[in-house]
Design brief:
The complex is a heterodimer of chains A (about 290) and B (about 400). Chain A is of the alpha/beta class. Helix content of chain A is about 35%, strand content about 20%. Chain B has about 400 residues and is α+β, with helices and mostly antiparallel strands. Chain B has 3 domains: about 160 residues, ATP-grasp fold, B domain (D-amino Acid Aminotransferase, Chain A, domain 1, 2-Layer Sandwich), CATH 3.30.470; about 80 residues, ATP-grasp fold, A domain (Dna Ligase, domain 1, 2-Layer Sandwich); about 150 residues, Rossmann fold (3-Layer(aba) Sandwich). In chain B, strands 7, 8, 9, 10, 11 and 12 form a 6-stranded antiparallel sheet that branches. Chain B has a 4-stranded antiparallel sheet with strand order 1-6-2-3, with helices on one face. A 4-stranded parallel sheet of chain B has the order 14-16-17-18, sandwiched between helices. In chain B, helix 2 runs antiparallel to helix 3, helix 5 crosses helix 6 and helix 11 packs parallel to helix 12. The chains are: A alpha/beta (about 290), B alpha+beta (about 400). The interface between A and B is large, with 64 and 57 residues.
Chain lengths: ~290, ~400
Amino acid sequence: MAIWLNRETRLVVQGITGKEGKFHALGCRDYGTQVVAGVTPGKGGEVVEGIPVFDSVEQAKQATGANASMVFVPPPFAADAICEAAATGIELVVAITEGIPVGDMLRVKAFLRDFPKVRLIGPNCPGIITPGQAKIGIMPGHIHRPGRVGVVSRSGTLTYEAVWQLTGLGLGQSTCVGIGGDPVNGTSFLDVLQAFKADPETDAVILIGEIGGDAEETAAAWVRTSYDRPVVGFIAGRTAPPGRRMGHAGAIVSGGKGTAQAKIEAMREAGIHVCDSPADLGASVARALGKG
Amino acid sequence: MKIHEYQAKEILRRYGVGTPRGRVTESAAEARAICEELGGRCVVKAQIHAGGRGKGGGVKLAQSPDEAFAHAGKILGMQLVTHQTGPEGQKVRKVLIEEAAQIAKELYVAVTLDRAAGKPVVIASAAGGMDIEEVAAKDPAAIHREPFDPFLGLLPFQARRIARRLGLAGDTAGKAAKLVTSLALAYVETDSSLAEINPLMVTAGGDVLALDAKMNFDDNALFRHKDLVAMRDLAEENALEVEASRFNLNYIKLDGEIGCMVNGAGLAMATMDIIQLEGSSPANFLDVGGSASQEAVTNAFKILISDAAVRAVLINIFGGIARTDRIANGVVAALRELGGAEIPVVVRLEGTNVEEGRRILRESEFPFHVAETMADAAKRVVAAVRGGA
């Protein structure tokens, strides 16, 4: 069953005429996603490898029935693109763009309060994939295989690492969601966990967090009271010095908050199996499912 | 991006925040002249980006222009060591000369992001001049938090409430409320990540002034703040980090011995962690970007090996969209361009076409240690540093 994304999803790619947007739009289509439209203001009427381009999301939706969007728009204009998709009734908006100002994301969050049905994933994320059905994002599709382990993560390549371990052990994935490395984002760990709970085809979850903020702690508190399937976790950044932003805008220990240690403790207290080494993620899931 | 105290005060004054009178200078002679202008008594404050300057000997009270000259002469050019600079310290190039104020009270006020709420928050405490993290740990009740809507700004009742929580009344409370409102506006309009006044001073005359000020900015928003970008002081940043930023590489210098080159920030942090788990320590954080192009790998390698503390290099790449064999060719080409490496290089590739990628590394003219897994790679690179490989 998976969450949020399946083979019926009809995708519009905002920023499809850019180099990255085009490359990954085609990557999604090659994987099996129905990529029905592209949007670039001022380039309506063009066609990118058979995909019609429109000036606005509104026109794209009317013409193609798109119900999901992938945002590849450059940072200064990305917040506007997200709001446009939401206001048009696109229910799943996946923002890949890295480098959107926090101030812009605060505007987006405020705007989205009027559109409670819209799910924004990201920004600064690899996207979402339901293996064997569809992907919206930049992840390599072929390392995944269909199965019953849900994956949620703040990072990109570290997620691929975990997925690759699972696939190598014969454990497929139901859906993998990259929520992104920014301090203000659309979808939290908790949102994804709640969706996995409602999915009868997700038997276990890998949660990959990192230093900064307290989203991992919030998720752990919920797991403790409300989720009884196995959760395996990892927190990146134990060795990161305080006050330094480790690549991701959100990955920073500041004011004594957001340390790896506090997150690991909160997760262990909630019964989450936290791996000390990222190399153990796959094997830990196998053990938790009695397949190790 | 960080800026100096004197620059933060410049910005805050534009928003109506009061500060002691003063000026920045790079010369002791000018420090004397400024002190005279200020009436003969002043404070000499080292301008470096790190905090804890007072404890490190970078802030001195001068009772006369001659004393200001003497203090400035000592502070300018010194390697100022604070808890935030590391043991090597930071060279002082500028001093701020300010009038010495009559302090009645020292308070704390700052604006930062409340990530969970998705809003900015004013943090205020009557315990000013101290390390606010210590105050928060010891006595959380002494800290008032006031989240506000960035588009409406800090509302008047919120500003009055903050002044009240700071223990102020009458005219002084009104002045403090106005200052906090200005600080909140400055935070929003400049795309700050932190705007902090510590201490916020109440003078003997009942005025409210920023005795110290610190502002950090959201790097992602600098494209719309050319005036702030002009305030960047490259001398305050690590030279290798500045060099890396020219190549769009995300590099942070750390104090360990193993140079790391990884694609992706999360995997880069995880690689640092696994090195520590194996008993050594990372010399840096370095994200070469998801696709790990040959150009990025070459530039990254140059930066890694120019750090004298690096005794071995670990390259950890997950090839997803970019195929592993192409990445392997990129690593080999990078080493050819650089004429090889004098220290051990452990490479761990995983992902698409990994067998071909590893073959390219093994059959190259360079003695790469080719690792199979992340754990194996960490073990090998630590063994190489220990002389066991």
